[in-house]
Amino acid sequence: MRRRDFLKVAATSATGAVLFAGCGRIGDGVPETEFKIAQPVHTPNDWVYGRDAWFATAAPPEQGGYGLIVRVFEGRAKKVDGNPDFPGVLGKSDARAQALVQELYHPDRITGPQRASTRGGQVQSISWDDALQEVVGILREAGGERAVLITGRPSSSQAAIIAAFRQATGIRHAILEPDEFVALRTAMRRLFGTSMLPIPDLANAAFLLNFSAEFLHGWIAPVALARAYGAFRQGHSGHRGLYYHVGPRLSATAANADRWFPIVPGSEGLVALGIANVLLTEGKLPAERFQPYLAALGLDAARLTSDYTPERVAEASGLGAEQIRELAHALIEHQPAVVIAGTNAAATTNGLFNLVAAFGLNLVLGTVDQPGGLLLNPEPVLPELRVPDDAILNQQQWAQLVEQIRSGSVSTVLVHRANPVYSLPATLGVADALRAAQHVVSFSPFFDETTLLADLVLPDLVWLEQWGLQVPDPGPGYAAVAIQQPVVQPFADGRAFGDVLIQLAQQLGKPLPWASQEEATKTLALGLRQVSGGNIRAGNDSEFLVTLQAQGGWWSEGTRGQAGTPATAIVQPRDPEFAGDAGQYPLLLLPYPSPAIGYGEFAHLPWLQALPEPISTNVWQTWIEVGQRTADELGLTTGDVVRVSTPQGTVELPVYVNPAGQPGIVAIPFGQGHTAFGRYAEGRGLNPLAIVAPQSDPDAGTLAWCATRCRLEKTGRRTRLARFEGMVPAFQLEEFPIVRVMPPSA
Amino acid sequence: MPRWGMVIDLDRCIGCGACVVACQAENNVPINTEDVYHQRRAIAWIRLERYWEGEFPNIKARYIPVPCMQCTNAPCEPVCPVYATYHTNEGINMQVYNRCIGTRYCAVNCHWHVRFFNFWEPKWPDSLKNQLNPDVTVRSRGVMEKCNFCVHRIVKAEQKAKVEKRELRTDEVTTACAQACPTNAIVFGDLDDPNSAVSKLLAQAEHEGRVYRLLEDLGTDPKVYYLKKVDIEAAAEPAAAH
After folding, report:
1. Cβ of B239 under 8 Å from any chain A Cβ?
2. A259: contact with B, CB 8 A cutoff
3. What DSSP state is assigned to residue A573?
């Protein structure tokens, strides 16, 4: 606060009539409008000056949907931590959860409803009444069949509201999730007959075999898995979990492994089959355990033993045959063992096969739903809280939808918390299609790339300002629901998306069952009271809701996941394919999600931008990671700017020489390359999707962003990489080793 | 009287950086912009270092979080001409911001490079100032700052205990980094309390031969203890610093 503001406030307070409320207009810096002045009688009744209040709420679905607590001081959220009671996380959090407060106070939040004079042009503020009326007119004009609602993965209660809105209006719902998760859910349906994600019981496992999944850095349930990992390593006296990582890159997660087995990208499934071959031929496991595994892959025992010998697999994967045997033997020697796969393994042209072949090993080992194995999660205890599978589109379905928008058969696009212009490959032409659409309405609280193409913007509240219910996906292995409650008064003139849908339906003459998102949340939450076995004992509804809010959620350890009937479709083993001629493009391009800013959805948060990427320690930009041997061959050093060419296009990027990089493979982090999305995201680096060829996995229909070849050429220019490494002088004292070497059995 | 200390188990640490961001959020550490990194003036009261061991393919990347070591015989303290850096009777190496005149002698004398100088006035957009922790002073240009084991949390807990006419309970207070750490790699507590988590961890890890302190041979008696990362095989090549 500036001195002038202070004096002004002091003078006002001196009259004894008014006090500050925690509601200010965001970022305008104008003293007259910086704060609302409110009568003390209007301040929340739990507000005590000078005292903290802690509110339980939930993390967003893209962060795992687990329970959080937020420290609030005089109307302002100060700090986010994990909910100490919530299963799986037990008080722990991660950098992304910590940064939620920056979204709340982001200086580039949209302050209220806006209308654009032209797409991407000037915007003017309008009232909520006008904005809603316009959207009602648009929806009436389009009718349900010509309108689509594109969202990110909604919270569970939002899913219920959207389902009711769909039913009332006939609008189509399309969910945009990162392709790796679409492939993962498909794999779970094929293997276990459920699209709820499973969770490895790491805390009780003796051995973890991981095929490329970034499970410690932003994958599914990053906090629950990290917490379990701590217990896996040092949580049991006299026993330490052993972790082997099979993957093409020594990633931030792979760096924690006891052993890293570098492989050719996309050969994860093949290695898994090689392991299954050893397990079968050596007869160390009952033969009947292989039946569901072989059935899912369309194989029989004879073909597995003849076609996938360690020698044959070794040739294609880059491993030695002995290494494959070693992996198989480790699974037998260290029980219970669990196998997971994901991230890069899911993003090749054989991604679904990789996932099915790797996760299927848990069936062979007999550790599905066993302590220390792979725990399946139950469907949400209330069917209304289920996020519909059919709304989650894969790349092929996105291509069809984009074509429908372009051709005019879908004339109206509503977008909530999704940024398809940025997140989908440029080859799909989403931006052009949206420009051709008759109406585009965005509900984003930020001007991202998609919102810039909207005619109308009705800004949503940010996560810490809303009501909701969230079923963590994956859950802790049993039923759990986190309650999301607003921890502060809204800091901008936004409205919760659920409220807007309810109001739109009302004005369309098709009212939904609830008057507000809050009412929907509480009504749905009361449904949990009817479910037996939960953690909350309450004599009446009011007591139940108060306890639910205080504890931050509802969970029932007795309600466990069960395997359903696996989908009948077979996932045939297939080799990965790469776009581009190997002679012309000799290197394989391996994009990877940034541990901090993910696929770009967290790029607007400065704490996450400034958090060094663990391996390179680079910040705030995009770089290309080149292995030492390849760099030596090309004469490259860190800071050289190179031209990266793929069959899809050419870009220039600075080089980071990674001593652990495999020869012939170069890597680029996702997350940057925003042309909008606020001051901290805009105009930095590159979105790798710009140079990734539009290859897809024919089984899952997902984008194979790890299936492009490239070549590097020196530009002769150099640039300085913003990075942490070198900030502090490094030296090592040989006489003080900081690693204790011990055998695996210890 | 407690003697505060910290144990960091490198076998649990995954390099996620939750501790770094939690510390920034708790202690009003300015945003490290791209320019700040270029100037090599990033402020991180706890930082996450990555170093390499071996060569491809037998190469390992290791993580180590580095906060202030809170040395008992802190080399930063005697060099301060204005007594801005001093030792509390609970063993915390403190910085008095409004006494500091910015000579930076302390930073020069710190072997762990965990003291940070404010070369510029810290800046946040007005709206982001709403996040600042009211319990922690925002440091101005020209003064040093450093990790203080979240002393405001300790003071608050001690005041609460005093009001309630009781002793501070075992592990009643913790630092922001330890609270956030998802793998429980960072544990904070009273080294003199045999029942505290840090004491128990140290007793157990001593038995396993995993305890060490950074630059222990300098004789400064750091109160941050590390537990060695366990490795099932020696890196094939001799260790190499980054």
Report:
1. yes
2. yes
3. -
Q: State the pLDDT confidence band at B118, using cuts at 50, 70 and 90.
A: very high
pLDDT (0 to 100) of residue A6: 45
DSSP-assigned beta bridge partners for residue A374: A200, A368
What torsion, rounded to 10 degrees, do the Cα atoms A408, A411, A414, A420 define?
10
Write down the pLDDT at residue A732: 59
Candidates A727, A731, A736, partner chain B, best to mutate (most B CBs within 10 A):
A727
Does the structure show a pLDDT above 50 at B241? no
Chain A contacts in chain B segment 175-214 (CB below 8 A)? 176, 179-185, 204, 208-210, 212
**Alpha-carbon span A73 to A50, nearest angstrom:** 7
DSSP sequence for A636-672: --TTEEEEEEETTEEEEEEEEEETTPPTTEEEEESS-
Residue A585 CA to residue B110 CA, distance in Å, equals 49
Matching residue, tokens 């339906």: A505
For residue B234, being part of any structural domain is answered with no
- Residues A247 and A259: their CA atoms lie apart, in Å, by 11
Cα–Cα distance between B54 and A84 in angstroms, integer? 40
For residue A22, is pLDDT > 80? no
Task: Report the distance separating Cα A367 and Cα A600, nearest Å.
Answer: 35
Q: Which residue has the tokens 């973890």?
A: A208
Prediction ipTM score: 0.95
CB A211 within 8 A of CB A340: yes
Contacts of A307 (CB under 8 A, 6+ apart): none
Q: What is the pLDDT of residues A619-632, one digit of tens each?
A: 999 999 999 999 99
State which residue of chain A sits closest to B11, comparing Cα positions.
Answer: A233
| Beta carbons within 10 angstroms of residue A56's beta carbon | 23
Whether B104 is covered by a domain: the verdict is: yes
List CB contacts of B152: < 8 A, sequence separation 6 or more: B133, B135, B136
The type of residue at A595 is: P
Enumerate the residues of chain B whose CB falls inside 8 A of the CB of residue A607.
21, 24-25, 31
Residue ranges making up the domain that contains B48: 4-227
d(CA A401, CA A174): 9
Identify the three-state secondary structure at position A230.
Answer: helix
Considering CB atoms only, which of B24, B61, B240 is closest to A607? B24
Q: How far is A739 from chain B (nearest CA, A)?
A: 5
- Longest CA–CA span in chain A (Å) reads 89
What are the φ/ψ torsions at residue A716 (nearest 5 degrees)? Answer: 85, -5
User: Would an 8 Å CB–CB cutoff place A683 in contact with chain B?
Assistant: no
Count structural domains, chain B: 1
- Which chain B residues are closer than 8 Å to A223 by Cβ? 182
For A364-387, what is each residue's pLDDT tens digit?
999 999 999 999 999 999 999 999
Kindly state whether residue B99 falls inside one of the protein's structural domains. Answer: yes
The CATH number covering residue B194 comes to 3.30.70.20
Residue range A323-352: mean pLDDT, rounded: 97
Helix (H) or strand (E) holding A80: strand A76-82
Contact A725/B at CB under 8 A:
yes
For residue B237, tell me if it sits in a domain: no
**Binding-face residues of A in 11-40 toward B, CB within 8 A:** 22, 24, 26-29, 34
Residue B11 at interface with chain A, using a CB cutoff of 8 Å: yes
Domains, chain A, ranges and CATH?
3-104 (3.30.200), 114-177+382-560 (3.40.50.740), 181-375 (3.40.228.10), 587-718 (2.40.40.20)
Q: Which two tokens stand for residue B104?
A: 């930076």
